[in-house]
Write a structure and sequence with these properties.
Structural class: alpha+beta
Distance between the termini: 41 Å
Helix content: 10-25%
């Protein structure tokens, strides 16, 4: 999944967050006291940099001490509890192993030669990740793991968007759609391969409207002729895959495959949500992805108005069932991978996030619950800029998409690193 906002080459994902107009984010809830809300998670005032223009984006602090009855500071999903029935240790271990593999590559050496946050080196990040893996294997509960982390690690907290540690979280996912390798009366809307001569295209590049027409069916009459990769029933489906940057496909012959980002034209992305709000079609307040999708289900003809307004365009390659890849060229793992601004945050590093996210309750309804999650920073994207933004990968399919569409919340971002030996 790759982001396509600008002329620079950027990678997974194309964020659901930019598909929408920003709504008021959900804030941390379900804490044991107001004191916990303010003192425990915000960047301590004694550490908060006074000069934001010259201060570091990550500030060293001691691990957060859990307040009584505040279970939101423990990653209980790793082990499984009454509230979180699914134990998730293997998924976290898998994501850790992906990052450890990244640290064996020349790309990681190059990345950390460019990375200049004081105290955060490739060697320290790598050794911290190795030690965390050992602790994960040797502990049997979230509280045991937390106690071990308090003893051996310090946390580098992002100063966030306000220099107080406040981070805006959104989420992305991998869509799952039916598709055909050949065009039919039912499957008419293509996704396209990367043009082999894209680098020789004159600037400015053709817009989406110029490439595929207002109805999305004119690609074979111009530069996209012969580049069709797969065909879809609904015009919105290949467009959403462009937004998310990759997709999993159920083909008409009964097989499954995947497609991933291959390149993009050099035009900025135009949000469908913003266009709908500007035209008075939907209300800004409470706007979510389900509301946008519902609008286009009711008025499918309007797709030919609003999709062409987005001048950007993404090309794909078939990835033959491979997992979606992050910007450090390792697979991303559902609920264990995040995307951040890699000019500021350490690639491949262990992180701890805490924010309200939507989960299915016992009645199969989505409700927000404040949680902490250990994750790996394995991705980036053009819409994720600054110390106050994180995009959270939620997996594949409809439920993941529904959850991603409701994820707009404030929380905190930490990077646990072994205490310095000096």
């Amino acid at each position: 999944m790759k982001k396509i906002l600008t002329a620079i080459t950027i990678s997974l994902p194309i964020f659901l967050s930019v598909f929408l107009v920003r709504t008021e984010p959900t804030r941390n809830q379900d804490l044991s006291s107001v004191g916990c809300q303010v003192k425990k998670w915000d960047l301590p005032t004694t550490l908060t940099p006074k000069n934001q223009t010259s201060s570091p984006v990550l500030v060293e602090r001691l691990p957060v001490t859990c307040c009584e009855k505040d279970r939101s500071c423990l990653d209980e999903r790793i082990y499984g509890t009454e509230n979180e029935q699914i134990a998730d240790k293997q998924a976290l271990l898998k994501s850790i192993n992906h990052s450890l593999r990244y640290f064996q590559t020349k790309n990681s050496v190059i990345a950390y030669q460019r990375y200049s946050v004081p105290g955060i080196t490739r060697d320290r990040v790598y050794k911290s990740l190795q030690r965390f893996r050992q602790l994960l294997l040797s502990t049997n509960s979230a509280s045991q793991l937390h106690a071990a982390m308090e003893k051996e690690f310090v946390f580098y907290q992002s100063v966030g968007k306000d220099n107080k540690g406040t981070v805006l979280f959104t989420a992305y996912y991998e869509p799952l759609y039916s598709a055909s390798r050949t065009p039919t009366a039912e499957f008419r809307y293509p996704a396209y391969r990367l043009p082999p001569n894209l680098n020789s295209w004159s600037l400015p590049h053709p817009t989406r409207l110029e490439l595929e027409g207002a109805d999305g069916l004119q690609g074979s009459k111009g530069k996209l002729k012969g580049l069709e990769l797969f065909w879809f029933r609904d015009r919105l489906e290949p467009y959403i895959i462009q937004i998310q940057g990759s997709g999993r496909l159920k083909l008409t012959d009964g097989t499954e495959t995947t497609i991933g980002y291959a390149g993009n034209v050099r035009h900025n992305y135009q949000s469908l949500g913003r266009s709908l709000v500007d035209d008075g079609k939907v209300a800004l307040e409470g706007l979510t992805m389900p509301i946008i999708l519902d609008y286009f289900r009711k008025y499918p003809q309007d797709l030919n108005i609003y999709i062409p307004r987005d001048r950007s365009f993404v090309f794909f390659r078939e990835t033959n069932g491979a997992a979606a890849q992050g910007s450090i060229n390792v697979p991303v793992t559902a609920e264990r991978s995040i995307a951040t601004d890699k000019s500021l945050m350490p690639p491949g590093a262990l992180a701890l996030i805490r924010a309200p996210f939507p989960y299915l309750n016992k009645n199969k309804q989505l409700e927000h619950r404040t949680v902490s999650r250990y994750v790996l920073d394995q991705d980036t994207g053009g819409a994720i800029k600054g110390a106050g933004r994180v995009d959270y990968f939620l997996g594949t399919g409809k439920v993941a998409g529904d959850r991603a569409g409701l994820t707009v919340s404030y929380g905190q971002l930490f990077y646990p690193l072994l205490k310095s030996s000096k």
